[in-house]
Amino acid sequence: MKPAILRFTLTERVQHIILLSSLIILVLTGLSLMFHNTGWGRFMISLEGGLAGRGLIHRLAALMLIGVSLYHYFYTLLSRHGHNLLMDFLPEKRDWGKFVKTFKFNLGMIDSPPEWSKFTFFQKLQYFGVVAGVIIMILTGIVLWLGPQAIALMPKWLVDLTLVVHGSEGLLIFLLLLFWHLYNVHLAPGNFPMNMSWLTGRISVDELRNRYPLEYKRMVERKELGE
Questions:
Q1: DSSP assignment string, 114-152
Q2: Rounded to whole angstroms, how far apart are CA atoms 202 and 209?
Q3: Residues linked to residue 6 through DSSP beta bridges, in sequence order
Q4: What's the confidence (pLDDT) of residue 227?
Q5: Dihedral of CA 6/64/78/176: which sign?
Q6: Cβ-based burial of 12 (10 A; exposed 0-12, middle 13-18, buried ≥19)
Q7: Which contacts qualify for 138-141: CB closer than 8 Å, 24 or more apart?
Q8: Residue 3: is the preceding peptide bond cis (ω within 30°)?
Q9: Which residues contact 128 (CB under 8 A, 6 or more apart)?
Q10: CB 195 within 8 A of CB 177
Q11: Helices 10-34 and 121-146: angle between axes, nearest 10 degrees
Q12: Is 38 in a helix, a strand, or coil?
């Protein structure tokens, strides 16, 4: 039996790192502008090189986000690994029953948790939540980037609404990254202080068996684990 198996390819890990880096930069530079009238907001802007430097950093990070998003789209569309990854993330009807069963297990109403395949319901929810959030951020960001040109193409109230949505979405992404994703992936029991699979791409066979038993059984049946 192999001591660890490949869960994420190098290409997928690089995409994740670029996505993570661009989102963190966008959130920090976005929040510093949103709260520019506070002490910490002014401090952040000074670290970012003033308003001009902040704007430049924000736009460069936006280009990173757009680039990795387009790459991921074509990766899932044209490559075998990418297509398989997308198929694994697609929700199934039975996921909803497992979602309910998870809550019952956490409340002590049942003795055993549901069995998941490669990804849990919550991981799928995070994936498509990020997809939706990034699309909103990119579309609203492009409108704001156009500035006066956007006002010439659409009503001012729509541009103002875009500004509110863009800022609110950025704040929501910050909260989700900090309190949900960071905890579940790295700080939760069994992962603390860090789940290294986002760097190594690998997961131990024991962890696979315990956390994703259906995926483990599938790999055993296909003799992908040497069993």
A1: PP-SSS-HHHHHHHHHHHHHHHHHHHHHHHHHHTHHHHH
A2: 14
A3: 202
A4: 53
A5: positive
A6: middle
A7: 138/62, 138/65, 138/66, 138/69, 140/165, 140/166, 140/169, 141/62, 141/166
A8: no
A9: 89, 91
A10: no
A11: 50
A12: coil
List the structure tokens of 109: 């109403």
Q: What is the DSSP letter of 203?
A: E
Residues 22, 61: contact at Cβ < 8 Å? yes
What's residue 226's pLDDT? Answer: 59
* Residues in the chain, total: 227
Q: Is residue 78 classed as helix, strand or coil in its secondary structure?
A: helix
- What whole-number distance in Å separates Cα of residue 8 and Cα of residue 201? 4
Residue 157 neighbours by CB distance under 10 Å: 8
Single pTM value for the model? 0.89
Give pLDDT tens digits for 110-134.
988 899 999 999 899 989 989 999 9
As beta bridge partners, residue 203 has 5
- Give me 205's structure tokens: 């066979």
- Of the candidates 62, 7, 2, the one whose C-alpha atom is nearest the C-alpha of residue 211 is 7
Among residues 70, 78, 88, which one has the least CA distance to residue 127? 88
Phi, psi of 203 (to 5 degrees): -135, 140
User: If you average pLDDT over every residue of the chain, what do you get?
Assistant: 90
More confident site: 185 or 89: 89
Would you list the DSSP string of 2-37?
Answer: -SEEE-S-HHHHHHHHHHHHHHHHHHHHHHHHHTTT
Task: Give pLDDT tens digits for 67-78.
Answer: 999 999 999 999
Residue 1 has pLDDT above 80, yes or no: no
